[in-house]
Amino acid sequence: MITSQKHRVLFVAYQFPPVGGVGVHRVTKFVKYLPQHGWNSTILTVSNPSVPLHDQSLLKDIPAGSLIRRAKTYEPGYGLKKKVSGGQGTGKKNPLVSAIKSGIRAVGNTLLQPDSQVLWHPHAYRDGLKILKDVHHDAIVATGPPFSSLLLGAKLAKRTGLPLILDYRDEWDISNAYWENKSQSRLSHWIQTRQQHKALNAARSILATTPSSAAAVGEIAKQAGSDAVASHIYNGFDPDDFPMDVSLEKEDFGNGTSRFRLAFIGTLWNLNSIEPVVTALEMLNQTSPAIANEIELLLAGRRTEEQEAIVDRLKETAVAVSRLPFIDHTQAVQLMRTADSLLMINSDLPKTQRIINAKTFEYMAAKRPMFVVAPEGDVWDVVRDLPGTVLCEPKKVSNIADQLSLLVEQHRCGVEYSSGDWNINRFHRQQLAGELASLLNQTIRQESQSVSRFRSLFMGHDVQLDPEGN
Length: 470
Known about the structure:
- By secondary structure, this protein is an alpha/beta fold.
- The protein has two domains: 7-236 and 429-458, Glycogen Phosphorylase B (Rossmann fold, 3-Layer(aba) Sandwich); 240-421, Rossmann fold.
- It is 41% helix and 14% strand.
- It has 16 helices and 13 strands.
- The strands form two sheets. It has a seven-stranded parallel sheet with strand order 3-2-1-4-5-6-7, sandwiched between helices. Strands 10-9-8-11-12-13 form a six-stranded parallel sheet, with helices on both faces.
- Strand 11, helix 13 (359-366) and strand 12 form a beta-alpha-beta unit.
- Helix 5 runs parallel beside helix 7 (186-202) and helix 9 packs across helix 15.
- It is globular.
- This is Glycosyltransferase subfamily 4-like N-terminal domain-containing protein.
């Protein structure tokens, strides 16, 4: 077995570069900065990911000393998945075809629990055991979604005896409630409740991305009979992604560059619907068409057909709309830094007050004012004191319209905010990796103490502990 002076952690992460999208960054940045805190990383990921987005630019963050094992999945390609999903568009559809697709989805959702990525497990489990046998590791971190990765981490931990940390990038029940094409039957709910409890009982520690999410997952762990302690580590930003020696000129996407640009970068779907913003812009167009004419809404990223249909309503207004597809991370950062205001949305749905979209922290690093349309909750708490932040509840559409009108007036007057006013160092990815390293150190220390106690009891000796438990 290969050993090294630094500790080593195995990340079980289906989503890892060159897979793109916001869900990739958390583990990638942990892997980048953990060596500065005494930990090297091994990543168990997928060789043929069935995903919609790829971003080769993220590979630059993987440091020397990292080991990557890519295991095959039996999932169909994403193109086939998309055809079967059918979408939720407003166009005319063949009822027979729609019924067949719906039937296939129902069968797939029932058989593949908790998600289709469970088809990655046969090869991933085998390859995971091999790398754990060949190279010394001190702990396992399994991150989800997909939540089948948490089950895989639990299985590897049980087989090897290594301590397990479960990292909930999203909450299991919230994701099931709102994911596209993820209608959950009572049987599926029963199965997945048992699966989640099994994973929680295998864990030594639990991580979430917000205080409220940590409390919610911790309560589920208690119900499962788990002793694992839940805490949170925020998502964050990496200053290396925001270099100072670049031009920060607005790019023209067909609507000029003089308008007030409200930019949203990311995926638009039912969990962060743009409906209240569009409704507010329609209202503004009726009451103040001259102001509406000075607004450019820029959208960059994937959008569901339902969201596209909502945005289409702005064709009947004076508001300029620029739509871009998914762009790589470097381009996304450039758009953030050149926007007049950055739009952050959470839909007004049960439990969404616990969500802080990972993109929020990169918005901070761009040091541009944020226009937040979200239920009052964790996201309000982390952005409310930042320069230029506007906080709106989704249901108060007239207030959204009024605040947009005010921002346009400020844009006319040339209002700007000093880049030195952003107090955001606590969200630096390097510091957050240090928090994970501290948790890993604590976990393996507790594991070592447990083994020592067991050995002492097994040998018939009393265990002497100092006041610190050592």
